[in-house]
Queue: 2 jobs
Job 1
Amino acid sequence: MKNSRPFNQTRREFLQACFTIPAIGAMVLHDGLEVIAQTQGLPPTPACGDEEDLTPPNAEGPFFKPKSPRRTSLLEPGITGSKLIVTGHVLSTDCKPITGALLDFWHADAKGVYDNVGYKLRGHQFSDEAGRYYLETIVPGLYPGRTRHIHVKVQAPHKPILTTQLYFPGEQLNNTDFLFRPELLMKIQDSNDGKTATFNFVLNVS
Ligand SMILES: [Fe+2]
């Protein structure tokens, strides 16, 4: 299968290309999730089945709190920082969308501080019928010893929990943070009022 891919394209790049949402998409409200509707439809499901692109686990860290509120936006009064929208899909290793996957996000505020008393910058949601998720938040700040990151737990229905982290490209500390993994880099672009990022989670649900 790899030999059929042009330009030494990795399977991850292929997946991201297949599931990249076109810029002409329109914002709609769908099943409680604000998602981007495609006006041209998805390309055909790619033929793939390797395990090499499974999203790897990454340390939970000391700041996870269970029972976060269900919400797709972590923005609320008192939250300051550069706006960040993260979107993507939850997929199986054969590239099928996983519906109803739990995604529980938590991260530091713009000053690098976690809310360990309440639930600021913490929230969970479920992927929609196309496996899509949408997170509205801010760019987390740095704290000593770590590069910039977002924590997340992802769980397909009735399957084990994947605990991992998402990373930001171009961060100098990515080179020295021993937890950093390039497979967990988001793709990030500047937007009118902040940044947009994409990342597809690939889970083993067999
Ligand atoms: Fe952290």
Job 2
Amino acid sequence: MTNFDIIIIGTGAGGGTLACKLAPSGKRILILERGDFLPRERENWDPLAVAQGRYRTTEMWRDAGGKEFSPYQHYWVGGNTKMYGGALLRLRESDFGATQHFDGISPAWPLKYSDFAPWYDEAERLYAVHGTRGVDPTEPPAATGYPYPALPFEPRMREVSDAIRRQGYHPSPIPLAIRLPQDLNGRQNDRLHIELYDGYPDPTGAKGDSHVVGIQGALQYPNVTLLRNRKALKINTDASGKRAVSVTVAHEGQEETYRADTIVVSCGAINSAALLLRSANEKHPAGLANSSGLVGRNLMIHNNGVVLAYSAKPNPSAFQKAILIPDFYHGAGDSPFPLGAIQNMGKADPLLLADAVGDELGKDGKDAAHFAGHIIDYFITAEDLPMPENRVTVDANGHIQLHYTQNNLEAYRRLREKLIRIMDDVAENEGVGGTTKYYGFKLGIGGVSHQNGTCRFGADPKTSVLDINCKAHDLDNLYVADTSFFPSSGAVNPALTAMANALRVGELLAAL
Ligand SMILES: Cc1cc2nc3c(=O)[nH]c(=O)nc-3n(C[C@H](O)[C@H](O)[C@H](O)COP(=O)(O)OP(=O)(O)OC[C@H]3O[C@@H](n4cnc5c(N)ncnc54)[C@H](O)[C@@H]3O)c2cc1C
């Protein structure tokens, strides 16, 4: 049986980026991915097909009470980044220190922002991030500008941004991973069609996801092998329990086992924890790398919500993933504790608005297209705090169960109020009359797109699962490189931090 130097399990923001970083090292790398290539097909941009879950897993998870739910999870080459919005933000400097929140303390990281800064630079270059530095006052220091300038706002978004700025805030362009108009290899892509970007697969490859950037980059090298449709069932150790030696996968109803000197788990925070727990053996009775009892604990998913701001003024924007309002990240005049970040999301399709606007549909002749043509869509994110009771467990059949109680909701409530006041003010000053209305919802337990924190890193093996290099304290050659390592979640989208950390870990592994 071939013995690889490194096996990477999973191809999302963590695994895909790690593979790309390690490929030039010449090491024999095997990538095991449970999913297949996401098909390029008409339905990629069909809002109904996407909303009905065409690309979501059919796997069901259970909540603490045993009730089944469908998790917002995508198992493809590229993982959840195939569907992501490509908003690549750095954590803020304060996120690396201990911070007081309404519901308690967000703990310090064992490394500082300055340790991550060069990796953020590299990740932004790799993923062709388009942005503008110096507008967002909460942005951490960076050695260089963004690799590419921000996309210009469409007229309506420019108007709204100007109106928000007149209120004294700092609307900034959302930094976006876009391989347009020219990617890092100098190739032109003249098919600028990115309206359906956030929450949709991108058949053009213009969205910088971990498949088109990470995995395709890695596969340029002959020493890299990708095996798809291989779900990792178990990581096996030697008799001492100190070394991980192989991975057993399910493939077309059969089990296969692959060996390597080093094994990296990058299955996403929930699946990585589940895989370690399922890999319990005599030497690791509570699960692999789990002498601390912390594998799966401190699960965070963010307090995320959608706010649809309706006003009389039409919003004909096609690409609406434009404005970030960072001003409440550290708090507000009337709020001593952090609230979070507000940003636009992709436009809701008329087909999907019926649920959101409910009874109002059809009143005064206002159909779904009318609402879609007026609404500005926002995604708001407030930090949730790590709690040991919020955890991933697996039952006797290996099924995933999430125990998750929301916390720090006051921050979310206040953040939503701030957005409503801002958009009320925008509408009032536009003088076109009509009422401003708000629709939307807060994501529940199924909304795990920002999952993180189940294998936190740290210096002390009693209080962390991974050491500061993301190697499991308990084993000599087992690493975790995805969003699992976060000790706290901050309130920005997590992918860039997973990518930057994968580059950091990749540099260490390349030198082994
Ligand atoms: C609709 C949507 C929009 C989003 N928008 C943004 C955004 O704009 N900005 C941002 O920063 N983040 C965004 N996110 C979140 C972002 O996608 C994740 O933070 C990121 O992908 C996490 O990377 P990861 O490597 O931890 O896990 P994933 O990307 O989930 O990758 C895990 C990989 O492991 C594979 N896998 C899982 N279990 C196994 C197993 N047992 N065996 C083999 N393979 C396995 C999966 O198939 C997958 O390929 C969004 C997510 C969604 C769903």
